[in-house]
Fold this sequence. Notes:
By secondary structure, this protein is an alpha/beta fold. The chain folds into 2 domains: 3-13 and 96-225, Rossmann fold (3-Layer(aba) Sandwich); 15-91, DNA polymerase, domain 1. It has 10 helices and 7 strands. A 7-stranded mixed sheet has the order 3-2-1-4-5-7-6. Strand 4, helix 9 and strand 5 (194-198) form a beta-alpha-beta unit. Helix 3 crosses helix 4. The longest helix is centred in the N-terminal third of the chain and has 20 residues, at 34-53. The radius of gyration is 17 Å and the shape is globular.
Amino acid sequence: MRLVSLDVWNxxxxxxxxxxxxxxxxxxxxxxxxxxxxxxxxxxxxxxxEIRKSQSGDPEKxxxxxxxxxxxxxxxxxxxxxxxxxxxxxxxxxxxxxxxVKDTLKELRGKYIITTTGNVMFWSSAYTxxxxxxxxxxxxxxxxxxxxxxKAYKPMKxxxxxxxxxxxxxxxxxxHIGDTKAEDFEGALNAGLYACWINKDAEKVERIHERGFMVxxxxxxxxxxxxx
Length: 228
């Protein structure tokens, strides 16, 4: 095993805290209740995930499509969404880092090529990069790959193969870990990688596919890598 590919949201960073920050920012700008805002944001997010699962969206415009859909839901110009995502990024704190992430990355550094393979929704990859840099995670990552930069989103094979092609590594030499079964686990398997699905309901590390594992948290990745 030479390369470890990491999903970002709900693998390294807490998506719920980011969404709460986004909802607060939107509510302040639009002067509407946060509860109403949250319902609309979550519903739109689910719709976008369905679009990507069916691969019916335009990978060239993955970010723009999600921002425009959210703007349409609130009946505002997309500039409002961009403002809100900027405010949300500025307002999050170090609590956005999930437990065990820094310790796991420290263990991986120097032993593997470490990449991120991340989708974008509502905010650009530049903001995700900013958060990773701000809270000291970027220093452990060899190179970051995001859908608005590589013009492919998970579960598309192209999204998983982009890091491998860059480092000239075969799928059999790489493992991807993430919290979404369809996007991260099945997507990585279909691209020929080993895959690790973070399922918070998991009771133990379990092999559920010839090349696939189910774990409770990112810390379990170290146990899996020790098998190679």
